[in-house]
Amino acid sequence: MLDRHHWLKRISALDPVRDHVEIHRISAGHEFPWDYTRALEFALFRTYCVPSISALLAATGEFRSRPQKRYDDTALLMAEIAAHGYESARGRSALRVINRAHGHYAISNDDMLYVLSTFVFDPIDWISAYGWRRLHPHEELAAFHYYREVGARMGIRDIPSSFAEFRTFKRGYEESRFVYADSNREIGDYTVGLFAAWFPAFLRPAARVGVRSMMPPAMLDAFGMRPAPALVGVMARAGLRARAFALRFFPARAESALARMPHNRTYPGYPSGYHPDDLGAPPPPADIPAHCLRARPPRS
Question: In which domain of life is the source organism classified (predicted)?
Answer without folding.
Answer: Bacteria
